[in-house]
Write a structure and sequence with these properties.
- Chains A, B: This is Glutathione S-transferase T1.
- Chains A, B: InterPro entries: Glutathione-S-Trfase_C-like, Glutathione-S-Trfase_C_sf, Glutathione_S-Trfase, Glutathione_S-Trfase_N, GST_C_Theta, GST_N_Theta, GSTT1/2/3, Thioredoxin-like_sf.
- The structure is a homodimer.
- Chain A is an alpha+beta fold.
- In chain A, α1 runs antiparallel to α10 (about 220-240), α4 packs antiparallel against α6 (about 140-160) and α4 (about 100-125) packs parallel to α7 (about 175-185).
- Chain A folds into 2 domains: about 10-90, Glutaredoxin (3-Layer(aba) Sandwich), CATH 3.40.30; about 100-255, Glutathione S-transferase Yfyf (Class Pi), Chain A, domain 2, CATH 1.20.1050.10.
- Helices cover about 55% and strands about 5% of the residues of chain A.
- The interface between A and B is large, with 39 and 39 residues.
Chain lengths: ~260, ~260
């Protein structure tokens, strides 16, 4: 495989830390000591829809990267690109071994239509709907919740089968651990009881989240800080009974980003 | 990357030719002269839910492969594995070049939550719903149709931008062309007018489907034959006004598979 030329330009990462795939890419870069520049986009201010950003990613989604003249989007592809292009990344993140790499690809592919679809659709149709002004679909929420729970069960019985600390029996995390755990972290913004109902039955998943967090500290918590603050705001709102306020705006709930 | 040991066991592909990712994998193997054994599973007879198959793929989905002692599922991962493991596969299918490979990964990742989600959800909530006995959700169908159309537009304006015959300006097809085209082929079972309404505005997509078909003949049409027969059955049904029959079974509509 052709190597990335050593570039005088720093890798640019376009991201919103409230987006789970953005967090996965940023944490990955930080853990691996990649020299990169984070360009913050605020989705709540629709900055990802600007003509300037659409030049970078015509799909208008974060994260996206620019590496010299090369542009790329889709977080899994970005993680794989960085793992292959930057010499400092340790093998366990995306093993060169044909069979282990194939298994990690399989987890990442599975993720899209299962855990990600369940978690994202559920959060959008419960907590984020009212603040984003999106009309919620209760049937979609119910189906997403079912898919989310079955995905968590599958993670336990298939990917976390055995005694490994990470997916596929790994002793060290791969990009699949990081991507899936960042997705689950999004559930932090849910109502606390709901959050416990969803994650409570999955002790192995809870332990694996903790393992992934420990393996990537202090970056994991630092990059999730914005999400933790959003969680607090949502809790305050619930205590004040503001959930039913139709005029509520995203800005009131989300912490200001810098 | 470690190479697959030359194996005395033939590659086994578990597939249902009415499943679009199954077709992509079978066509890929045939076009590349891979020595493989196709093990046909009939989803309509729930053969993918058997304990024997769950030993191969605990997610109970086709396609899946067994290569010696190695088991793998998720069609994109399978295509990548075969491209990397079998020496006869030409480079254009999954280029070794870091940048071109990253772009193909990006298309494949994008596919899951866009074209695939739109097409599959739409077909399930229109044509397949009544015959599979699944309760249809008109709102889900409407949203899926919107996602399907916007995905086709994105393919034209982003991935087929320029004058290449294939995605990303390619002169030869990649695994992304094969995966996405097989997905779109599923729309053949739709009502003819609906099919024209969806694909009609996308001339570039139509040309690209034709290019991908030509590049993979005679295997493309041979592997799609079961789908073409299912399409005819659906059309006959419509002419006879059988769509409203609640007791209709999948068997009556789908051609028997062998």
């Amino acid at each position: 495989m052709e190597n990335r030329k050593t570039n005088t330009m720093k890798l640019k990462v376009y991201a919103d830390r409230l987006s789970q795939p953005s967090r996965a890419v940023i944490i990955f870069c930080k853990v691996n000591g990649i020299d990169f520049e984070e360009i913050k986009l605020d989705i709540s201010k629709r900055q990802h829809l600007s003509p300037e950003f659409k030049e970078i990613n015509p799909m208008a989604q974060v994260p996206a990267i620019v590496d010299g003249r090369f542009r790329l989007f889709e977080s899994h592809s970005i993680l794989i690109y960085i793992a292959c292009a930057f010499p400092g990344v340790l093998d366990h993140w995306y093993p060169a071994d044909l069979f282990r790499r194939a298994k990690i690809n399989s987890v990442l592919d599975w993720h899209h239509s299962n855990l990600r679809r369940g978690a994202t659709t559920y959060v959008q149709n419960t907590v984020l709907g009212p603040v984003l002004g999106i009309q919620m679909n209760p049937q979609a929420a119910a189906e997403a919740r079912k898919l989310l729970s079955s995905s968590l069960s599958k993670i336990e019985t298939v990917w976390l089968k055995g005694n490994g600390r990470f997916l596929l029996g790994g002793r060290q995390p791969s990009i699949a651990d990081l991507s899936l755990v960042c997705e689950i972290m999004q559930l932090e913004v849910l109502d606390e009881k709901d959050h416990i109902d969803i994650l409570g039955p999955h002790k192995k998943v809870q332990q694996w989240i903790e393992n992934t967090r420990s393996a990537t500290e202090p970056h994991f918590d630092e990059v999730h800080r914005l999400l933790y603050r959003a969680k607090e705001r949502f809790q305050e709102r619930r205590l004040k009974g503001l959930d039913s306020e139709a005029e509520s705006s995203f800005k009131k709930v989300l912490p200001s980003k810098m």
